[in-house]
């Protein structure tokens, strides 16, 4: 490792790291890129298309070339920019996208074949023979494409999400950002200062202009110390604000522990949603390059990046200490680099300045009115060709800095689709005038990049922003700076008949742009899509503006007429893990558990996901080897004795008020106003478009008090709908409602012995058929004073009740019923048996109420009252609905032991099976232990008129076909005697 | 997005469920002579403006108020929010 | 000029001097037989089929921006014919057949890649619904297979089988489904239409319709008035705005849908996979990016950009389904405006105004429909009768009660 003098690295803290298996040394404060350069490593990767050798081009997140894969195993992290990877001890990096060693990539053959791979070539070939695309061409392309590889293992790290609020979010902690934050911080505003770098300072750390006569980093440190001391300021280094969203909301990622050796404990990254009343965009600027022939070799980098490596990291850009460095520039910026290099003792070949009147600032050679017209050096720059006064000269150079001017970082200011504004004086696009509300660009991001100007601009901008919040922020002392404004002359590319790269990563050259122009792909979006310009991991941060300048030159339009492509979030890549915020695996969504969940678990129940709920599916007993054995037993127990099932998941809505009955009359298709106190009625709700919405029961506990149940799936939607009906349609009705799904535990007690069992827990309540008939309901107490509600309703078709107690007593009630019912053969049953029981009885559930069906199809068309208005009534009478002849029927397979799977389609026997002859489908299917046969429910064309007909149920998907007899959907007790006894 | 709830101040839009155009409050007269056609227009047709839009949001994870929010669909700027239940006359217009 | 491997080779050897513009840049003529409003995928496909299939070439496509700047310029590139309802499935299967010969028909490689799609089921009920759908696909002549959990584990082992909140129970596979290069599709149609004499006019925004006695006779544009025998509108995302100029209200809301692409990665995901318990679907492009999406943001919008909650929701879905993608990075997200119709299905129909035809309401499934949409709209424009696979896409189906509601959520566009 060779280091220059100075720099902001901690030489007392050496770190060891590996690149492509070889071990190197660096220091704390290094990035992977600065440490590689210090070790004389220029070649770090390969380009996407031509697999050209590539080095480090920038010193920031705009890096197009130096992409590496970090870590190994499950933590493998491809496409990581070496330029922003903070060095830590043991860091493991490798180059990517090559076959064989990096130095001898077999895919470099693509470079030889480059003439074939011109812009858009793949749209013009690979079309014959047709079948070869998927089999031959595409696999080959896919294999060659892509950059790094994922491990295919689950990410083992931990991620977090958080929310922050502030008066002022300052994005970027360079000169302008620091003065903005300090101005606002001193004024007492709540401030967040976020910077993607691990050290605040921005370009101040990279430049050599003195502040108050000392190194800029000293002023930066003092300022950060004061900011850190202010309780109203939150400093967020290693935090990239990646997106500007609505109403002052920003997305940001904090890389909490990426700079530390991997650990199983630490949170790796945190996703922050920052809500800011105002923001200052001080995101700096990105230097652009000047395309010239063979300008992509390792060792060629942005001149500003070169200054950063020299000044901040004491890393020379060359492989050997005595290699000469050349600079190619169209302005004063290149000369700064020459001066800083000389100041650090790096040999400078000279500055090649496109301006004929190029200034001279120091003791180095200036090639005025000159350009670079070629380079040599396969794996690292060895020589450059300079053209001056019509003469070309080859000179040896180990590195070349290129300075083509600066592009303000308008990204975050353009996320709301405002268009950046071209500024001819600055030769740059400035942030849009109609940018995000409350955002104030400052410093280099606003085109005010000179250090002294940026420092003042930050302060002024913060004052403006806070003034809008009614806060007056005073001036802060700004440091004295001895900088002079840089000048430059527009110069966009050096003409050549060979390749001059514009977008390095995607290998887009000036020739490609010319070809796009020739083929009439001239609008900037066509240019981008035809050539893949700006579509690489860097999103063209160093390429786009130069490219559109080239296109403007070709079309004769101006740069602003040519326009930019659209800026879209994220500003830089954001890991999918952190966007998911750790809500993965079993944490993807919360679990809703029923009040008897813990009890069921002890019983050994199997559970199943029902929407957000976990429900007991069945309760296996010793000796039962197949779930069907268990379910059959549970079903038969209910039909013979008594069973218990937790039905808490059904939605419950408490409706109260003098107008409750009238209100329910309007939301239910059938009449509810006539319901007597102490009785329950089955109800159908329609959507306003006349289709079935939901079904459930409506119990009237008092004149002005109803309890409504919904299906599990629609609990939320029905409640929302009822509030809509009340608040938005009929606010004059005096009624209130609340969801009580979670407040009451509800247990179905079903079977011939259910009355007997319940009699043992009610407190002196008469359960006789006369006193408490079918569809009765009551509020009562059980178990010696426990508040409860009892409904005599039946989903199974048996004598049955549902009993509700406050949720916290659900578990105890279940245990009590189990204990007291032992001699009655009480059996817990799960959702599976519940489903069998309801299919046997022909009750509709989710599969029949799928949002595409009608009351008529269920056979309940008459329930839609014509005597009153209700939601959906009018539209349920439309032609298409009224003429729909499909009806719910039962289906008995002629082979009783063959299951007709739900999802089979129904046909007249012998008919061709096509979409035109399709007569319906099977909605639900199960084995009925009661009948000793498989049974099914389905919607069948004219189903009610076809009872007894044998039809075909076809499942061509799985190669099945069944003959089935059409029967009533009520397989059990169609007269309903059992539930009325 | 942040929604200025008239009672609760600025609330994150994630607390709300969106329904759509506030014209859904203007349910036609079911007894009218052309009720079916009017209901179809009411249920299916929308102005769908590119600009200021009055729309219904339900504060599902909040106080369960239905709000009428006035929002610009081109910029997402919110110009105001009112409690639906406090708004005057509705029904066939 | 015919594109071919030989041509590419020849140009490579001769310095690419022989390439010609992919299409002309004509000025609008005063009148056309047919004007198509909208130079997105559907508009361009319509123009191509009018010229190539129905022999009508005196037509213009008017595009307010650049060709292909509609939602064909921003989508997740999925093609499939795995619908349930008889109003839809034959149409999408027709579209799939057109995809299968598209490159040869257009002489343009739009990279139609039949890499398959798997729709995952996470409950018995969902599996049953997919069985019903898979059977409907068979009935329409399409291919479909129902995969067991074990078969899926073999095919896509990187899914979360062992630590999932919603376990994978089954999957509906369509092998002929896949992806296509979305921009390439637009360019292929544009070039093929231009070659047949269609005028593709960019930067030409329609600002009004000329209506005389209930008949549309032409359009007003930013480049002047243009007369037309018939006008077909194919401007999904802006349908309400454009049709409002003809005095029509549509059963459509405009909503923003975000989509996402990751940085390039070596091949990882074979086909298209959709999560059945969260909002996430994904494929991998030939370039290596994971192309994925989820739900619409859910509020009316014309802003062409979305918000953070959906970004997080989609990423959560992705991480829950395939936790191996966590260390990939999101590269770019974008928002497009969808014509969300009241039943989730499109409209290809005449309008109450003579001479004015509408192609709209594609929700966020318009890309896969591009070939058939173009064909059927051209059929309607050319013959004044609907194509046999598009007879259900009538504008009056809502009022008459013949909605095509695949999801069963009714007239709530943000749920379709």
UniProtKB/TrEMBL annotation, chain A:
Pfam family name, one: Fer2_4
Domain of life: Bacteria
Keywords per UniProt: Oxidoreductase
Domain GCVT N-terminal intervals: 597-868
GO biological process: tetrahydrofolate metabolic process
Residues of the SoxA A3 domain: 498-582
GO MF terms, alphabetically ordered: sarcosine oxidase activity
Domain Aminomethyltransferase C-terminal: 886-973
InterPro entries: 2Fe-2S-bd_N, FAD/NAD-bd_sf, GcvT/YgfZ/DmdA, GcvT/YgfZ_C, GcvT_C, GCVT_N, Sarcosine_oxidase_asu, SoxA_A3
Record-stated family: Belongs to the GcvT family.
Protein name, as recorded: Sarcosine oxidase subunit alpha
UniProt organism field: Donghicola tyrosinivorans
Automatic annotation (TrEMBL), chain B:
Recorded superkingdom: Bacteria
Signal peptide: none
Pfam families: SoxD
GO biological process per UniProt: tetrahydrofolate metabolic process
Xref: InterPro entries: SoxD, SoxD_sf
Gene Ontology molecular function, alphabetical: sarcosine oxidase activity
Name by which UniProt lists this protein: Sarcosine oxidase subunit delta
UniProt source species: Donghicola tyrosinivorans
Upper taxonomic lineage: Bacteria, Pseudomonadati, Pseudomonadota, Alphaproteobacteria, Rhodobacterales
TrEMBL record, chain C:
EC number: 1.5.3.24
InterPro entries, per database record: FAD-dep_OxRdtase, FAD/NAD-bd_sf, Rhodanese-like_dom, SoxB
Top-level EC class: oxidoreductase
Swiss-Prot/TrEMBL keywords: Cytoplasm, FAD, Flavoprotein, FMN, Nucleotide-binding, Oxidoreductase
Subcellular location(s) of the protein: Cytoplasm
Top-level taxon in the UniProt lineage: Bacteria
GO molecular function, one term: sarcosine oxidase activity
Pfam families: DAO
Cofactor: FMN; FAD
Family as reported in the entry's similarity comment: Belongs to the SoxB family.
The protein's name in its UniProt record: Sarcosine oxidase subunit beta
Phylogenetic placement of the source organism: Bacteria, Pseudomonadati, Pseudomonadota, Alphaproteobacteria, Rhodobacterales
């Amino acid at each position: 490792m060779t280091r220059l003098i100075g720099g902001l690295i901690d030489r007392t803290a050496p770190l060891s790291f590996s690149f492509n298996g070889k071990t190197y040394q660096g220091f704390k404060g290094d990035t992977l890129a600065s440490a590689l350069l210090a070790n004389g490593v220029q070649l770090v990767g390969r380009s996407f298309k031509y697999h050209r050798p590539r080095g480090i081009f920038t010193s920031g997140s705009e890096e197009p070339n130096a992409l590496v894969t970090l870590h190994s195993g499950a933590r493998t992290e491809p496409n990581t920019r070496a330029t922003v990877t903070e060095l830590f001890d043991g860091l493991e990096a490798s180059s990517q996208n090559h076959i064989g060693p990096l130095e001898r990539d077999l895919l470099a053959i693509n470079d030889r074949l480059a003439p074939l791979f011109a812009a858009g070539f793949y749209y013009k070939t690979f079309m014959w023979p047709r079948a070869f695309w998927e089999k031959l061409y595409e696999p080959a392309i896919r294999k060659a494409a892509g950059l790094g590889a994922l491990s295919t293992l689950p990410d083992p790290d931990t991620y977090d999400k958080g929310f922050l609020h502030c008066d002022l979010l300052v994005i970027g902690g360079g000169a302008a950002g620091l003065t903005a934050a300090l101005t606002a911080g001193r004024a007492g505003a709540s401030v967040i200062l976020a910077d993607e770098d691990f050290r605040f300072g921005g370009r101040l750390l990279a430049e050599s202009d003195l502040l108050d006569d000392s190194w800029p980093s000293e002023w930066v440190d003092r300022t950060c110390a004061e900011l850190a001391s202010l309780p109203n300021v939150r400093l967020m280094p290693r935090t990239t604000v990646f997106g500007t969203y609505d109403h002052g909301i920003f997305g940001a990622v904090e890389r909490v522990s990426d700079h530390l050796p991997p650990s199983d404990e630490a949170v790796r990254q945190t996703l922050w949603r920052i809500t800011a009343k105002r923001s200052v965009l001080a995101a700096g600027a990105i230097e652009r390059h000047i395309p010239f022939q063979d300008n992509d070799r390792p060792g060629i980098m942005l001149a500003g990046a070169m200054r950063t490596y020299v000044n901040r990291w004491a890393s020379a850009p060359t492989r050997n200490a005595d290699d000469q460095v050349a600079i190619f520039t169209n302005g004063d910026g290149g000369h700064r680099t020459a001066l800083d290099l000389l100041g650090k003792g790096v040999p400078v070949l000279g500055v090649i300045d496109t301006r004929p009147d190029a200034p001279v600032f120091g003791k180095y050679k200036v090639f005025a009115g000159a350009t670079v017209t070629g380079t040599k050096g396969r794996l690292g720059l060895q020589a450059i060709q300079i053209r001056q006064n019509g003469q070309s000269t080859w000179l040896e150079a180990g590195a070349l800095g290129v300075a083509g001017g600066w592009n303000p970082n308008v990204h975050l200011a353009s996320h709301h689709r405002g268009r950046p504004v071209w500024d001819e004086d600055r030769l740059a696009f400035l942030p849009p005038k109609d940018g995000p509300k409350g955002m104030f660009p400052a410093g280099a991001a606003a085109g005010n990049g000179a250090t002294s100007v940026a420092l003042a601009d930050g302060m002024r901008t913060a004052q403006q922003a806070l003034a809008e919040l009614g806060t007056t922020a005073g001036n802060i002392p700004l440091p004295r700076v001895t900088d002079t404004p840089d000048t430059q002359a527009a110069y966009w590319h050096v003409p050549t008949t060979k390749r001059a790269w514009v977008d390095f990563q995607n290998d887009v050259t000036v020739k490609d742009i010319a070809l796009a122009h020739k083929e009439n792909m001239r609008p900037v979006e066509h240019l981008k899509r035809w050539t893949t310009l700006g579509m690489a991991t860097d999103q063209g941060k160093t390429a786009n503006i130069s490219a559109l300048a080239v296109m403007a030159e070709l079309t004769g339009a101006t740069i602003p007429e040519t326009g930019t492509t659209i800026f879209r979030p994220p500003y830089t890549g954001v890991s999918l893990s952190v966007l998911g915020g750790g809500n993965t695996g079993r944490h993807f969504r919360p679990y809703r558990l029923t009040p008897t969940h813990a009890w069921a678990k002890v019983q050994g129940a199997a559970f199943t996901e029902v929407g957000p709920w976990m429900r007991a599916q069945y309760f296996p007993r010793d000796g039962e080897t197949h779930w069907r054995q268990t379910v059959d037993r549970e079903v038969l127990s209910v039909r013979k004795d008594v069973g218990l099932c937790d039905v808490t998941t059904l939605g419950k809505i408490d409706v109260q008020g003098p107008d409750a009955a009238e209100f329910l009359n309007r939301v239910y298709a059938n009449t509810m106003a006539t319901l007597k106190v102490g009785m329950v009625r089955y109800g159908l709700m329609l959507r306003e478009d006349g289709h079935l919405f939901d079904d459930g029961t409506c119990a009237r506990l008092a004149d002005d008090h109803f309890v409504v149940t919904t299906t599990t799936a629609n609990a939320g939607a029905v409640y929302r709908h009822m509030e809509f009906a009340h608040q938005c349609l009929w606010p004059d009705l005096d009624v209130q409602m609340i969801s009580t799904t979670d407040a009451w535990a509800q247990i179905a007690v079903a079977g011939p012995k259910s009355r007997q069992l319940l009699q043992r827990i009610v407190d002196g309540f008469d359960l006789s058929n006369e006193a408490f008939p079918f569809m009765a309901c009551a509020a009562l107490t059980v178990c010696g004073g426990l508040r409860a509600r009892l409904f005599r309703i039946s989903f199974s078709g048996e004598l049955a009740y549902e009993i509700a107690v406050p949720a916290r007593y659900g578990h105890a009630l279940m245990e009590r019923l189990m204990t007291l019912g032992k001699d009655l053969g009480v059996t817990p049953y799960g959702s599976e048996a519940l489903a069998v029981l309801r299919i046997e009885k022909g009750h509709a559930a989710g599969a029949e109420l799928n949002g595409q069906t009608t009351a008529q199809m269920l056979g309940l068309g008459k329930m839609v009252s014509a005597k009153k208005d209700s939601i959906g009534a009018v539209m349920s009478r439309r032609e298409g609905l009224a003429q729909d002849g499909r009806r719910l029927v039962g289906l008995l397979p002629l082979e009783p032991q063959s299951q007709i799977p739900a999802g089979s389609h129904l046909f007249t026997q012998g008919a061709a099976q096509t979409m035109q002859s399709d007569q319906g489908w099977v909605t639900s299917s199960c084995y009925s232990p009661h009948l000793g046969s498989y049974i099914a429910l389905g919607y069948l064309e004219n189903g009610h008129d076809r009872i007894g007909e044998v039809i075909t149920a076809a499942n061509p998907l799985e190669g099945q076909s069944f003959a089935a007899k059409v029967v009533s959907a009520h397989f059990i007790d169609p007269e309903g005697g059992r539930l009325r006894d | 997005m942040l929604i200025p709830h008239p009672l609760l101040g600025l609330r994150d839009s994630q607390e709300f469920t969106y329904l759509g155009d506030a014209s859904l409050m203007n349910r036609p007269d079911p007894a009218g002579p052309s009720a079916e056609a009017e209901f179809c227009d009411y249920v299916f047709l929308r102005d769908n403006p590119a600009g200021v839009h009055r729309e219904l949001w339900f504060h599902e994870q909040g106080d369960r108020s239905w709000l009428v929010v006035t929002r610009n669909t081109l910029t997402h700027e919110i110009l105001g929010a009112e409690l639906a239940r406090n708004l005057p006359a509705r029904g066939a217009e | 000029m015919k594109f071919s491997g030989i041509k590419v080779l020849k140009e490579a050897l001769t310095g690419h001097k022989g390439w010609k513009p992919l299409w002309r840049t004509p000025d609008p003529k005063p009148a056309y037989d047919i004007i198509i409003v909208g130079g997105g995928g559907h508009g361009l496909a319509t123009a191509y089929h009018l010229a190539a299939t129905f022999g009508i070439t005196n037509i213009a496509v008017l595009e307010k921006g650049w060709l292909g700047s509609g939602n064909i310029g921003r989508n997740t590139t999925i093609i499939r014919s795995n619908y349930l309802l008889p109003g839809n499935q034959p149409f999408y299967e027709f579209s799939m057949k057109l995809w299968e010969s598209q490159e040869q028909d257009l002489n343009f490689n739009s990279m139609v890649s039949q890499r398959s799609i798997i729709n995952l089921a996470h409950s018995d009920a969902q599996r049953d619904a997919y069985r019903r759908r898979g059977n409907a696909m068979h009935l329409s002549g399409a291919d479909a297979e129902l995969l067991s959990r074990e078969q899926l584990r073999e095919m896509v082992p990187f899914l979360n089988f062992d630590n999932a909140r919603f376990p994978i129970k089954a999957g509906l596979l369509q092998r002929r489904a896949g992806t296509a290069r979305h921009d390439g599709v637009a360019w292929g149609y544009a070039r093929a239409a231009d070659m047949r004499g269609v005028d593709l006019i960019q930067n030409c925004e329609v600002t009004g319709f000329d209506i005389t006695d209930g008949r549309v006779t032409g359009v007003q544009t930013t480049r002047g008035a243009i007369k037309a025998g018939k006008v077909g509108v194919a401007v999904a995302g802006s349908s309400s705005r454009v049709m409002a100029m003809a005095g029509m209200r549509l059963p459509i809301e405009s909503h923003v849908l975000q989509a996402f692409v990751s940085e390039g990665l070596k091949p990882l995901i074979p086909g298209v996979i959709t999560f059945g318990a969260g909002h996430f679907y994904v494929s991998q492009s030939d370039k290596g990016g994971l192309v994925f999406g989820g739900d619409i943001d859910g509020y009316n919008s014309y802003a062409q950009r979305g918000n953070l909650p959906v970004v997080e929701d989609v990423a959560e879905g992705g991480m829950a389904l395939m936790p191996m993608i966590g260390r990939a990075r999101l590269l770019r997200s974008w928002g497009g405006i969808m014509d969300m119709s009241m039943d989730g299905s499109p409209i290809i129909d005449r309008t109450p105004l003579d001479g004015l035809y509408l192609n709209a309401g594609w929700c966020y499934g318009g890309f896969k429909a591009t070939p058939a949409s173009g064909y059927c709209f051209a059929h309607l424009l050319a013959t004044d009768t609907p194509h046999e696979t598009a007879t259900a896409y009538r504008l009056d189906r809502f009022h008459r009660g013949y909605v095509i509601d695949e999801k069963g959520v009714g007239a709530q566009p943000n749920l379709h």
